[in-house]
Amino acid sequence: MAKQVRQLDRVVIRFAGDSGDGMQLTGDRFTAESAQLGNDLSTLPNFPAEIRAPAGTLPGVSSFQLHFADYDILTPGDAPNVLVAMNPAALKANLPDVPRAAEIIVNTDEFTKRNLAKVGYDVNPLEDGTLDAYAVHEVPLTSLTVKALEAFDISKKDAERSKNMFALGLLSWMYNRSVEGTETFLRKKFADRPELVEANVTALKAGWNYGETTEDFAVRYEVKPAKLPAGTYRNITGNTALAYGLIAASVRAGLPLFLGAYPITPASDVLHELSKHKKFGVLTFQAEDEIAAVAAALGASYGGALGVTSTSGPGVALKGETIGLAVMQELPLVICDIQRAGPSTGMPTKTEQADLNMALYGRHGESPAAVIAASSPSDCFYAALEAVRIAVTYRVPVLLLSDGYLANGSEPWRLPKVAELPEITVDFATAHNHENPDGSTEFWPYLRDPETLARPWAIPGTPGLEHRIGGIEKADGTGNISYDPANHDTMVRLRQAKVDAIARDIPDLVADDPSGEARVLVLGWGSTYGPIGAAVRRIRDNGHPIAQAHLRHLNPLPANTEALLRSYDKVVVPEMNLGQLAQLLRAKFLIDVIGYDKVRGLPFTAGELESALEEIVKNV
Q: What are the GO BP annotations of this UniProt entry (predicted)?
């Protein structure tokens, strides 16, 4: 009997289970197949910090949420239309997020008395009416997988581990996804263990066939490809995009790329990805600690390379002294801060954007640095290009802020043409630049470009360009050591003026205000872009005018920032911190911006922002 096929414009699926159940891999493979089909998509991986959290417990639950659609979307979705719960812990941890009438697929094999007791279920929720408001599919995923693999010479444990592939096959059938790409992936992943290749492929196909033959699933769904701008696309995570952006920037600048890094969640994938690309002149150095990593990167910049270091908040705290040294030496340095929930160790795998104050002020003395932020996973590519452009043009350290949500999340990315990438021009000093009264010439390492105020960048060993370098205050022009009070005042102001001058070289802040009648402006930065944009769309669809603007450059701010903010009656700033940008804007412009803050280790949902913003719009 042919199954009914129903057309949908969007779906949100959440896979949830133990951290050892392969939920991240399952979600990643479903994402890859959806991207191949041409859907627009956005993902939200959510997993514990422990390498192997206690099995069957609430702290050990790992989930992967995917939102895919036939139109342009901005977020991973507010709530899942389908929850795949591999055990009672996954059900209990995620059920509060699931709307009534949503579909829930549960692995009934794991709903034993012992597993139920682990998470505080006195009665089996599959039997006591807890799930009456949902469309529940009870599927013995584990035993079906083991039965499908009984002909293979593998252990029962290995067979049970393949249950995620059975679930993936079932969901792929349910939403008309191809599994060919996943089969190819599995054959490559387990190439040295052919028995596991065949077992996982068999489990994948068994899940597909189960959906095709069982009477429990009477409907299949189709989500057509999205109408995206023409081009070649690939699915990309924020960390991968950031790594690619750094490579592209180094090629455009004609500089070898050096990354000094110490592994830290959620930044380690930047190091992992860059280490694969030696053919582009990339050199990666896994240092013994965060201080050594940034010191090596600064040394690379001194030697004429593009010095970069990647880390998260705790690492930025340790790198502060060396960033200050880069300020004093006036050398380019890019610091990639993939923010996570803090302070201290905090919640390493959860997202937050609470490092803004540290990026702006987290060094001793008057130590100005440029700060920019990426707004989406694919935008990490372009943010990296901009960070490098500013660093090498103005000879300043640039802190590039991403976060765990962007780093691990993914979306389709249209591959740009090389000609579309910005020019990054680097001019090394090659000759003397100062003439003495007697007509002789010499090299002054702190004689500045009149427009950018950048000092010359002289590669060590260039004949005639020998000069001092270090952290002690320099004399204006000559670069000699100086303790003169007036000179120190001059140099402090020059270093600040150099960063301030970047504002002349960046775009104005632009408000998206289609009707021109909005009285409320929502101003965001970083990863709040998607949730704000989705909420603003909904509010406009409800008939209320509202404007949106988003900051990439946080220090300096665009030159027209104050004027734009003052052109609206109310300015609302949603942030995943306790109002750090809002505080900055109040202090700098004396504008009473309204903060909307959240620090739960999760990104905003469009729904919660819609409710808060619409209330403000109605009462303005």
A: response to oxidative stress
